[in-house]
Design goal:
five-stranded mixed beta sheet, Trna Endonuclease, Chain: A, domain 1, 53% helix, alpha/beta
């Protein structure tokens, strides 16, 4: 992260920007999560899906979140499945969905089954049908707040696990659910880099349930789990050191800020590895999940064993 200009204040993130961020997270993860989502949330048993181009161009370009051909064995049972995600209540959503239906049907000439997956804080208030003398149209709305979070907590893909933060905790305290999500993400993420991405996404999605503060607390509490604030604080600390150095005209202030923060980062990493080893993680698991040098982790393991052998 580059240092922001001292003369240009950072503008606060708008509601529209936040909604775009949520949409981006869902679009990034949708291809891997959609089969489970359709089965667990929409009640659909689907043999196979063939994604179709999500962009349609007429007088202006239209893009939907997800659409695919449902490849049932019998040709007469095949149809197009169309899914949209929404954070807010859109007053004319029925008109938008009807327009999507017409566009998809015009292109593929197959029936279209449509769902809106609502992830917002408020109760969904969409108009879901259009009824005219010569027209009967409707689509389905699924409110994720009404879906059991444990349907996704046992999933084997991190994209599915993330959805649990948006679901019904069934009376279980949020910190417990968040801790379980983090554990599951750490076990299902194929690399440390991807684990970091999923944890950043979890923190962002938690804002939709007013759980950001509790999510950050649980991230900090987990042994060797990526701390979403660490990189931010580290970079901000460097920026503060740079600014102080400029103010005083002392170049050493910059270097000192870097050195002190680097030392703090290394000490914290050492402690996190210790906690993980004492918590039952193996040296191999820690090296694989978090891209750490085996010699570094083994040295800490040797320290622990040496301490445990002392009378």
């Amino acid at each position: 992260m580059s240092a922001p200009s001292s003369n240009t204040p950072q503008a606060p993130e708008s509601t529209h920007q936040r909604h775009q961020n949520y949409d981006k997270i869902l679009r990034e993860n949708i291809l891997k999560a959609i089969p489970a989502l359709l089965k667990k949330v929409c009640g659909l048993e689907i043999a196979a899906l063939k994604p179709i181009n999500p962009t349609q161009t007429r007088t202006k370009e239209k893009r939907y979140d997800f659409a695919a051909k449902v490849l049932n064995p019998r040709l007469q049972d095949r149809y197009i499945l169309h899914v949209e995600f929404r954070v807010g209540n859109e007053r004319k959503m029925h008109l938008r969905m009807f327009e999507y239906y017409e566009m998809i049907y015009h292109t593929h000439e197959l029936p279209v089954e449509q769902f809106v997956i609502y992830i917002g804080k408020e109760k969904p208030r969409f108009i879901t049908h259009i009824t005219h003398k010569n027209l009967q149209y409707n689509y389905h709305v699924i409110d994720l707040k009404t879906i059991d979070a444990y349907l996704f907590l046992s999933a084997n893909t991190p994209e599915e696990v993330l959805l649990a933060i948006l679901c019904d905790f069934k009376g279980v305290p949020p910190p417990q659910i968040i801790a379980e999500i983090l554990k599951r993400l750490s076990r299902t993420s194929p690399s440390h880099r991807l684990l970091e991405k999923y944890i950043r996404q979890l923190e962002m999605l938690s804002q939709l349930r007013n759980l950001q503060k509790q999510t950050i607390q649980q991230i900090k509490a987990m042994p060797l789990i990526y701390d979403i604030e660490k990189d931010i604080r580290y970079q901000q600390g460097i920026e503060v050191g740079i600014e102080k150095g400029i103010e005083k005209g002392i170049e050493k202030g910059i270097e000192k800020g870097r050195e002190e923060l680097q030392h703090e980062f290394e000490v914290q990493t050492h402690q996190n590895v210790r906690n993980a080893l004492l918590g039952g993680y193996t040296v191999e698991q820690i090296c694989f999940l978090f891209s750490l040098n085996r010699e570094f982790v083994q040295h800490i393991q040797d320290e622990i064993e040496s301490e445990q052998q002392k009378p």
